[in-house]
Amino acid sequence: MDKTIISEGKTTNEAIENGLKKLNVSKDMVDIKVLENEEKRNFFSILAPRVVKVQLTLKERKENVKKERKEIILKPEEQEKAKENATKFLNEFLNKVSKDSQYEINVNESYLNVTIKNRDLGFLIGYRGETLYALQNILATVASKGIENRIRVILDIEGYKEKRQKALEDLAEKIAKTVVRTRKPVTLEPMQAYERKIIHTKLQNHEKVETRSIGEEPRRKVVVELKRK
C-alpha cells in the first residue's frame, strides 16, 4: 500500500474522505496537506470544474508498548473462597435457566476455569459470544466477593471458544489469500479484543501480509493488508 497518495474532491473534506477510503484508514492515522484549495480560484478558472487536491501521508507506526499485567497469585483460602462464590451463583442461576445443565470449576493460583455443558444453552452464548462474555464478567465479580483482588474467570459453554477460535483462524488464512491476490486491504467486521488477538496471532508470521486494528471500542476492527516494503 502506498505511503502517500493524492486525492481529489469538490471540497477539501470530500477530497480527504476519498483519500481515507483509498487507504482504508481513519483520519488520525494520516498527515494531511492541501495542495489545491477551493478558495484559490482566478477569473480564468471560474468556469472549470472545481477540484480540490490533498496529499495524505500515512503516519509512522508507533509500537504500542504495553506493560505486562502483574499476575495475581491467589492464596489457597482465596482460591477456595472464589470457588465457593462461583459455585453458589451457578447453582442458583443454572437452576433457573436449565436444570439439566452440568458445570465444572477448576481453580488454580491465577484464575477460575468454568465450563458449562448443555446444548440447550445457546442463548447464553449469544451473537458472537456477547452474552457469554457478559456472563463471564458477572462470574468474575461474584467470585471476587470478599476477596481483596479481582478474580479472573475463564468461562466456556459447550466448547464455543475452541470452535470460534478455529473459525477465526480459518477466516484469517482466507482473508490473507484474498489480500495477496487482489493486493487490496480487507477490513473485518468489529470484533472483541480476544477475537482480534486470534487474527493478529494467526498472521503475525505471514510472509506477505500484516494486521492492525482501527476504530474505537466496541466497533474496533482488524485490517489485513500487504506488508510495506
* CATH class wording of the largest domain: Alpha Beta
Percent helix range: 25-40%
Instruction: Give the total of domains.
Output: 3
CATH fold naming of the largest domain: GMP Synthetase, Chain A, domain 3
Q: What is the annotated CATH architecture of the largest domain?
A: 2-Layer Sandwich
**Helical stretch tally:** 5
User: In one word, what is the shape?
Assistant: elongated
- Characterize the main sheet: 3 strands, antiparallel
Q: CA-to-CA gap between the ends?
A: 9 Å
Low-confidence regions: 41-47, 62-68
Descriptors:
about 230 residues; three-stranded antiparallel β-sheet; three-stranded mixed β-sheet; alpha+beta; 9 strands; 3 domains; 5 helices; Ribosomal Protein S8, Chain: A, domain 1; GMP Synthetase, Chain A, domain 3
Describe this structure in words.
- The chain has 229 residues and is an alpha+beta fold.
- It is built from 5 helices and 9 strands.
- Helix 2 (76-97) crosses helix 3 (130-143) and helix 4 (160-182) crosses helix 5.
